[in-house]
Design a protein that fits this description.
heterodimer; A: mainly alpha; 11 helices; globular; B: alpha+beta; six-stranded antiparallel sheet; four-stranded mixed sheet; 27 helices; 47% helix
Chain lengths: 240, 719
């Protein structure tokens, strides 16, 4: 085999490794290895949910009581998850300040904005929460929740909000004011635990009209996380 | 002459490559910089400050412009050579931002040339030079360093030049070549001590390589090489005390240093939220040590080799690894030493323990299995200066570049160019097709209001909130904006160094006005300070307290969960108004209070007497970062009984200048609330007696609205 042939084969192998999937797969495997460690700490179930969601296999998600149990574990477990993984920002949304401090990177520097090249965008990540919430919603619907009672107790705020909204979207009977307020409070509570950089939830604070709830943007939807445009706009505003 | 022309052509090519690699920065050469990290602002400040001093013939080591009145030793910044190049560019007439950006472009150019020279030597032609030059210059590591404001980058090209000098010495040992090697090593010192340490590492492995490789020149090389290093050390001997001053001594590391509890503690310190009195030496050392693991490369990042947003996660990158693979495959045994070097240096980038990902704590098995870095850090003198392991990746890059060049040497001339050309092109354009170039530039123009301080009373400045860490981008810019007002200031970004932080702690904690100013955005009332301490500061030369009534939205976004640290709440404003008002400047979001000439000798100012409470708006916290969508009737504000004043921070995210307005409807009255476009704006309004509710309406423009720290003062309520 000539040296050129060997070089070309090496180049092809390198290209395949980085762009063919094995590199990403290894990164995922590393996350799984971490999950295995967490499993021994009693949080593995929740991590498993995340990994299944990350695999884009919602059908594999657990249902029923298991889903509720997993949701309860989620909040405690996610603090250990790799925040650079593509689904982790959504996980961060479920954490309180102390927990997020544990996963924050760059101790001597303020956090950097996400970027298109580094897929920290929440869209995929929040999908995890949506998936789980939808599962939870499926558990609770039917029957419709009794009035003035939180139909999804024990969940994190974001998961509860998503679950309740899932009920609305599924054509559940109109929410009572108390339930609407519960959604609102849940969403707000969830966003409170969300880093400002990533959080953009629109709420209608001065109304409890259930019909307006349907127009709520989905949790996690927000403006372009990349602030290039914002910065350049700022330059323009100042005559640059 | 032909050689000079050829190198000029290559310089032009690397410069063009740098323009493509750093695009769109060259488009905003004089008004924007890559990244928005405190390193960048500190470096900009230093270049301009040094320029001013040197032009005025001031050669003293200490500056009073920051950390006033303690003063700051300019040697503590390190990499003097880099700054002097920046000063030279300013002396040529470039403004500081342009000088900084040109410095970056020149850094990429000279780095390319340095690696090109090494590659050319190893491959015997310019194709190998191009491959090595492009590999070493255009990669995630250098991109990350540039975007983080780490101007060590300017000295990167010296590393392959030094390696070239060792190769030449080894090929044909002579005293002259030993002198060249020694001088090259000596030059790295003033530019960057990290890279000096890295050059030392490379010297060690190169010497070992020569030791185990039989050759006619071996004995002479093994003798001359240590002499060259000794010569370099002697040349830099006067600077060694400065090195020790630059970086505080490092404490030993162990697995316990990186426990989850210590990690959490380090986070609170680096967020600047630990009370000043709690900043013990032990705690600061612990946070300092955490830098080692934070700055280590994880296996996950190594596997991906992408362009991460966080430079601490950067590695040589995908294309560099491919170049190394190609080089090894083509060169066979000849490339093996460089491959071994790469493997060794990459192992060092992993830091003291294997980290699967970037999340603490360390895996249990990992903490029982130290990597080579662990022993070297704890045992080898000076090695601990390289306390950011990921940066050793620059040596991995150099060896990958060399490996690529050695590989090309084994191919035909046509095959060389066929491989080197496309790979170099791909590397130069990487940020454009990986999306990294989509990241934001940071606006580097000073707010115009600072210039208006010329008319304010004289004296040094304390800018609020006073933070002991650059926890938010807005705060990190205070030091940079010193260039606009040119007054000495207490604020200083360099408090990331624990020795300086200890000095700051000791100074600030003995004055109640300074402890009041510290972290004022996050501190809760009651507040208080004594007039005696005001007089003390006045006697020390302080004259002004600067505050901000408007904060750019993009800076708030970048501050993440520390956003509220920048925003003073109403009780703080009341204190400042009561003690020092009216302000001597209140324009364009900047408000300046003058310290009085005739402050009382006794007595104190406290927040007692003002009963501000957070308004109950159905959500849990006034620090929520929500975008609100008020309907046509506006956002209801339940003021409650006895409301006398309302205050808040507001942002209209999508409003252009002059587009629409914010109005507070109180009974029949409509009170305009002027907001600064694109900025969080502090608002305060008196509430007529008897009014218990109000509405907030965004009119004539986008309805979207963000609120924070909505507070109401109620009469008859105890504070």
């Amino acid at each position: 085999m000539s040296r050129l042939t060997r070089a070309l084969i090496a180049a092809a192998l390198g290209l395949f490794w980085f762009w063919g999937g094995p590199a990403e797969q290894l990164a995922e495997d590393i996350s799984r290895a971490r999950a295995e460690e967490l499993r021994s700490e009693g949080a593995g179930l929740a991590v498993e949910v995340i990994l299944r969601a990350a695999d884009d296999a919602p059908d594999a998600l657990p249902r029923g009581e298991e889903a509720l149990a997993l949701a309860e574990h989620l909040r405690a477990a996610l603090q250990h998850e790799d925040h650079t993984a593509r689904w982790s920002e959504g996980a961060l949304a479920l954490l309180d300040d102390d927990q997020r401090a544990a996963v924050k990177l760059g101790a001597d520097r303020p956090p950097l904005p996400p970027s298109r090249s580094n897929p920290r965008t929440p869209a995929e990540l929040v999908r995890l929460v949506e998936l789980l919430s939808a599962q939870v919603g499926a558990v609770s619907n039917p029957p419709p929740p009794p009035p003035d009672q939180d139909p999804l107790p024990g969940l994190s705020p974001v998961a509860r909000a998503r679950g309740l909204l899932a009920l609305v979207e599924a054509g559940s009977p109109p929410l009572t004011p108390a339930q609407a307020r519960a959604i609102q409070a849940a969403a707000l509570g969830g966003v409170r635990a969300h880093e400002a950089l990533y959080a953009e939830v629109s709420v209608i604070l001065n109304t409890l009209d259930p019909s307006l709830l349907a127009s709520l943007p989905r949790l996690g939807e927000r403006h372009d996380p990349n602030r290039a445009e914002a910065a350049l706009a700022a330059l323009r505003r100042r005559g640059g | 002459m032909r050689a000079a022309g050829r190198w000029a052509a290559w310089a032009l090519l690397y410069l063009l490559g740098a323009v493509a690699f750093t695009w769109p920065m060259p488009q905003h050469l004089a008004d924007a910089v890559w990244g928005d990290r405190f390193d960048t602002w500190t470096t900009l400040w230093l270049i301009d400050h040094l320029h001013g001093r040197l032009m005025s013939g001031d050669w003293s080591e200490t500056s009073q412009a920051i950390l006033y009145p303690l003063g700051y030793n300019l040697w503590s910044f390190g990499h003097v050579g880099v700054q002097l190049v920046g000063v030279a560019l300013m002396a040529l007439g470039l403004p500081v931002v342009a000088a900084y950006n040109v410095l970056n472009l020149l850094a990429f150019t000279t780095t390319g040339l340095g690696a090109h020279a090494l590659g050319r030597r190893l491959s015997g032609g310019d194709a190998g030079g191009l491959l090595a030059g492009a590999t070493f210059t255009f990669n995630p590591y250098t991109y990350g360093e540039m975007a983080a404001g780490c101007v060590e980058l300017v000295a990167a090209g010296l590393l392959p030049l030094y390696a070239l000098s060792l190769v030449r010495l080894s090929d044909a040992p002579s005293p002259r070549r030993a002198v060249v090697a020694g001088l090259t090593l000596a030059v790295i010192g003033p530019f960057n001590w990290y890279y000096t340490a890295f050059a030392g590492m490379f010297t060690g492995v190169f010497w070992l390589w020569r030791l185990v490789t039989p050759s006619a020149t071996r004995a002479k090389t093994l003798t001359l090489l240590p002499l060259a290093v000794l010569g370099a050390a002697l040349t830099n001997a006067p600077l060694i005390p400065k090195v020790r001053q630059e970086t505080p001594s490092r404490v030993e590391i162990s697995a316990e240093s990186f426990s989850e509890a210590r990690w959490r503690d380090a986070m609170t310190l680096t967020d600047g939220s630990v009370p000043l009195q709690a900043l013990t030496e032990e705690r600061m050392e612990s946070a300092d040590t955490m830098q080692v693991v934070i700055n280590s490369t994880s296996l996950q990042n190594l596997a991906r080799g992408g362009f991460p947003t966080n430079p601490l996660e950067s590695t040589p990158g995908r294309l560099a690894w491919i170049v190394g693979l190609v080089g090894l495959a083509a060169s066979g045994r000849r490339g093996l030493p460089w491959a071994v070097f790469t493997l060794g240096f990459t192992t060092l980038t992993l830091g003291p323990f294997v980290q699967l990902d970037a999340t603490p704590p360390l895996p249990e098995w990992s903490s029982h299995t130290p990597l080579p870095y662990y022993a070297l850090y704890n045992e080898l003198p000076f090695f601990a200066k390289a306390y950011r392991p990921y940066r050793i990746g620059v040596l991995s890059l150099m060896c990958l570049s060399a490996l690529g060049a050695v590989g090309l040497a084994a191919l035909s001339d046509r095959a060389r160019w066929a491989l080197a050309g496309p790979l170099a092109l791909a590397m130069m354009s990487q940020p454009l097709w990986t999306g990294a170039a989509d990241r934001a530039l940071a606006d580097a123009r000073h707010p115009e209001a600072y210039a208006k301080l010329n008319d304010a009373p004289p004296g040094a400045v304390i800018e609020l909130p006073l933070l002991y860490q650059p926890a938010t981008p807005a705060n990190a810019r205070f030091q940079y904006n010193q260039l606009a007002h040119r007054r000495p200031m207490l604020n200083c970004n360099q408090l990331i160094r624990r020795t300086d932080l200890a000095r700051f702690r000791d100074y600030v904690s003995q004055n109640t006005l300074l402890t009041f100013a510290l972290d004022l955005g996050r501190a809760q009332p009651p507040y208080g300070f004594t007039w005696a301490d005001v007089r003390a500061l006045k006697d020390q030369g302080f004259g002004l307290i600067l505050t901000h009534t408007a904060l750019p939205e993009e800076l708030a976004q970048l501050a993440g969960d520390q956003e509220h640290a920048d925003r003073l709440r109403q009780p703080a404003w009341d204190m400042l108004d009561a003690a020092f008002g009216p302000p001597v400047l209140d324009a364009e979001g900047l408000r300046a209070y003058a310290l009085p000439e005739d402050a009382p000798a006794e007595g104190e100012v406290t927040s007692a007497g003002h009963a501000w409470v957070d308004l109950d708006l159905h959500w849990d916290s006034v620090t929520l970062h929500l975008t609100l969508l008020p309907n046509e009737e506006g956002l209801a504000l339940p003021l409650g009984e006895g409301a006398t004043r309302l205050s808040m921070w507001a942002l209209r995210p999508e409003a252009a200048p002059g587009e629409g307005s914010l109005t507070l409807v109180v009974g029949d009255a409509r009170l305009p609330l002027p907001t600064t476009p694109g900025a969080w704006t502090r608002l305060e309004r008196t509430i007529p007696a008897g009014v218990t509710s109000a509405r907030l309406i965004a009119e004539g423009g986008p309805a979207r609205l963000r609120l924070s720290a909505v507070q109401v003062e109620r009469a008859g309520v105890s504070p």
